Amino acid sequence: MTNKLKVAVLGGGSFGTAIANIVALNGHHTYLWMRDTENAEKCQREHENTRYLPGFKLAPSLQITSDLEQAINATDLVLVSIPSHSFREVCRQIKPYLKADAIVVSTAKGIEPGTFNLMSDILEEELAGQAIGVISGPNFAKEIVAGQHTATVVASEDEYVVSTVQSTLSSATFRVYANQDRGGVELAGALKNIYAIICGMAAAIGAGKNTQAMLLTRSLAEMGRFAGVMGGNPMTFLGLAGVGDLILTCTSDLSRNYRVGYSLGKGQPLDEVVSGLGQVAEGVNTLQQVKEKADAMGVYMPLVSGLYSVLFERRAIADVVRELMLGEQSNDVEYIGNSHGQ
Ligand SMILES: NC(=O)c1ccc[n+]([C@@H]2O[C@H](COP(=O)([O-])OP(=O)(O)OC[C@H]3O[C@@H](n4cnc5c(N)ncnc54)[C@H](O)[C@@H]3O)[C@@H](O)[C@H]2O)c1
Ligand SMILES: O=P(O)(O)OC[C@H](O)CO
């Protein structure tokens, strides 16, 4: 598409800033909305988000504002990059300014506390009638603004949403693949944060490469099993939003969730770790939501249960690891001719 759109990105944190920068560099009329006026003015003046992405100059054409109406009014595409705990609140705020044919896409990787809503469920509820979608993939904000090559997945049942997001976001450094399994892609992005905490914790206690490979593979099995029960397609987990993002987040301390796990593994208390982060680590809340849902639905998720018992039941990591290792021996791959699901 050569057509230039008006695009609004909501949320002036790491990812909102990175994604807005891509869209602006692609020549679209782009607004990045952040709630703090002083910070918006500073970022606009300096063409840099010094709090979240220091050292990276942003596209000169990017308009950074705290005026929500200015950002949303007459906008063709809205990308919502607000953490899951505040996502619904911001959707409600934009509703009066949205034009009827605007596309709204979530970039968040979390689950709403209490409701088990994914972010696109919230879009459906709060912005009924709008065309919606999600993006998710191996996408560290810091590497995106540094121009490192990567790719993401856009998922929507609406072909026009998929093609618009692909043409608006794709660039020489950022590819955008399509998927119709919106729930599966979204769940993949949320679930991998739990396993990143586990892998960070494993690294902190000295886990080697064998252990890392086992954890990654069994995490993938657990994610696919849960998504299958929730109505997603387990095969989605073989793509960029699944295994791609899982590998990324579980193997790098650029991940906030991995860093949370690492600090916990070194013995720091959870509340201290979370408050010291200064940015969102969705995995802690996602763990609580998924544990509750898996218990209610009878889904076997030993890694989720193990992490939950370390974080919220004060069990020793070594005891939980021993229990996991001595648990019932089970099948390797669940989708090739066995139906035991363990
Ligand atoms: N950082 C990444 O590399 C990355 C990549 C892909 C997806 N994500 C996902 O994107 C979402 C946002 O993550 P992030 O990394 O930008 O987080 P962040 O912690 O860097 O920033 C969050 C931003 O949201 C803003 N915010 C929070 N509540 C708000 C509200 N009520 N109204 C307006 N603004 C509000 C904060 O002020 C902050 O600017 C998360 O779900 C995350 O999992 C992050
Ligand atoms: O820093 P994290 O752990 O929130 O991960 C960021 C992105 O989701 C990576 O794709």
Offer a few descriptive terms:
single chain; alpha/beta; globular; binds nicotinamide-adenine-dinucleotide; disordered C terminus; 342 residues; 8 strands; 15 helices; binds SN-glycerol-3-phosphate
Short characterization:
This protein has 342 residues and is α/β, with parallel strands linked by helices. It is 50% helix and 11% strand. It has helices at 14-25, 37-46, 68-72, 84-94, 119-126, 141-145, 159-169, 182-204, 209-229, 240-250, 256-265, 270-277, 283-297, 302-312, 317-325, and strands spanning 6-10, 29-33, 63-65, 77-80, 103-106, 131-136, 150-155, 174-179.
Tell me what the structure shows.
- This protein is of the alpha/beta class and 342 residues long.
- The chain is built from 15 helices and eight strands.
- Strand 1, helix 1 and strand 2 form a beta-alpha-beta unit.
- It is globular and about 60 Å long.
- The termini are far apart.
- The C terminus is likely disordered.
- The site of nicotinamide-adenine-dinucleotide (NAD) has 26 residues, from helix 1 and helix 4.
- The site of nicotinamide-adenine-dinucleotide has 26 residues, from helix 1 and helix 4.
- It is an enzyme of class 1 (oxidoreductase).
- It is found in: Cytoplasm.
Give the strand order, joined by hyphens, for the main sheet: 3-2-1-4-5-6-7-8
Strand content: 5-15%
Structural class: alpha/beta
Mean pLDDT, nearest integer? 96
String of helices and strands: EHEHEHEHEHEHEHEHHHHHHHH
The Rg value, from CA coordinates, equals 20 Å
Active site: 192 (proton acceptor)
Pathway: Membrane lipid metabolism; glycerophospholipid metabolism
Family: Belongs to the NAD-dependent glycerol-3-phosphate dehydrogenase family.
InterPro entries: 6-PGluconate_DH-like_C_sf, 6PGD_dom2, G3P_DH_NAD-dep, G3P_DH_NAD-dep_C, G3P_DH_NAD-dep_N, NAD(P)-bd_dom_sf
